[in-house]
Every structure is written in C-alpha cells, then in structure tokens.
Amino acid sequence: MKCPHCRIEINPDFQEEYLGSDIQGHWSLFRMICPNPECEKFIIELASGEPQEAHRQGIVGIRDINYKITVNPLISSRPPVPTEVDNKFASDYKEACLILTFSPKASAALSRRCLQKILRDKAGIKKSDLSKEIQEVINSNSLPSHLSDSIDAVRNIGNFAAHPIKSTSTGEIVEVEFGEAEWILDVIESLFDFYFVQPAILKAKKAALNKKLADAGKPPMK
Ligand SMILES: [Zn+2]
Q1: Which residue from 160, 162, 177 is spatially nearest to 108, judged by alpha carbons?
Q2: Residue 182 C-alpha from the chain's centroid
Q3: What is the pLDDT of residues 154-189, one digit of tens each?
Q4: Quick one: what percent of the chain has pLDDT higher than 90?
C-alpha cells in the first residue's frame, strides 16, 4: 500500500484496537506509523464488520470488513491529482474532493472555480461568466467530443442556464445534488488529463526520440 501522507510504498502493518459494537455492527480502529523516516505519521482507519472471537477471550476484533474510512489523514476516495498539474489548479480540486460527501454545494462552488481557472489559463478563454466560457470552449472545437459533451452538462448543474445572474460569480453557492457535484469533479479530472498529463507524455516521448535522432547524427523532429 501507499502511505496516504507521503505516497511512499509501505508494508501494511496495522494494529487493531477493538472498540465495541452498536446497532450497525462491530467497530475497530486500525493504526500504524509510516516507517518512512521523513514521514513517521500515524495512519488511522476506522472500520466495522463481523465480530472476530478468540478462544476464552470473547470478541477481540473484526473480520469481513463492510465499511472502512481513513480518519488520519482525512482523505477523499477519489484518485490523487496527477503530479503534472500545477498547484494553483490542484488545490481547489483537492478541497472540492475532500468536502464532497459533507457538502456537495460547497464542493461544486470550489470545483466550478477550478474549472474556470483551467478554461482561462489553458484554453485562453475569458468571458463574463463560466456558462459563457463553457460555450466558448465548445465552439472552439478544441476539445474531443466526449469532453465537450461532459463539460456542456456542467452548465445545467445548479440550473445556471435558467438563472444567468447566479452564474456570474463562480464562488456563488447554489443547490446541487451529490451526483452533480461529482460530475464537475469528473470533468476536471478529464481536463487535467487533456491539458496537463497527455501533453507531458508527448513532450517526454518527443525528447526521447530527438535524443535517439541526435545520437544517430540526424536532425531533431519538428
Ligand atoms: Zn508516510
């Protein structure tokens, strides 16, 4: 497993502490300290499952885990942001992921702001509001069709199209469903891949090819 703090590969070596049972089932905390000397932080998971009994000791822990969350660090279940993405885009996205379960509308406000930053910085679009910016990027035909379709749907979230005043400020809070807030995060994840990850892969491949060409005494690829 990877340590959720430092992302270094470590061997899971959790100690279980049985908490007891409630109407939902039996609960345990699992804890370990990351062995990476530059990290050494507690990784703590809370889980519930079926009781695990030991001879003459009664219930000592749980098995057949049916629910588990990481409580330290408190992280989202979405995949981590690719390393190619600049922090100015990644930070809003990470926070939007983290609060998704607790407040979809706060998550959507952050992710709409993140989406607007990407469109302005990476697609060079600047209009008075996000809805118009989305239309502009669709009109530009610069995105693959699956991406332009999914970004188009963002405009219907929180009913922006019907309430243009609401859409003028991306930080504005509007009512959204969990699935809608999640949709914006999915769109941003695809845009991260399109604008950051794929160009970096292409650049690295081109550099490797040009090195081979140079070693063979040939001119580089344009
Ligand atoms: Zn660590």
Answers
A1: 177
A2: 10
A3: 887 765 544 444 445 555 666 788 888 999 999 999
A4: 64
Extents of the domains making up the chain: 15-72, 87-200
Structure tokens at 104: 């979809």
Average model confidence (pLDDT) for the chain?
88
Residue 4 CA to ligand 1 center (angstroms) comes to 7
Over residues 101-119, the pLDDT tens digits come to 788 889 999 999 999 999 9
Q: 34 alpha carbon to ligand 1 midpoint, in Å?
A: 5
17 CA to centre of ligand 1 in angstroms:
21
Tokens 């061997």 belong to which residue? Answer: 11
73 Cα to the center of ligand 1, angstroms: 10
Please give the distance, rounded to the nearest whole angstrom, from the Cα atom of residue 16 to the centre of ligand 1: 19
User: Taking the model in full, what pTM does it have?
Assistant: 0.68
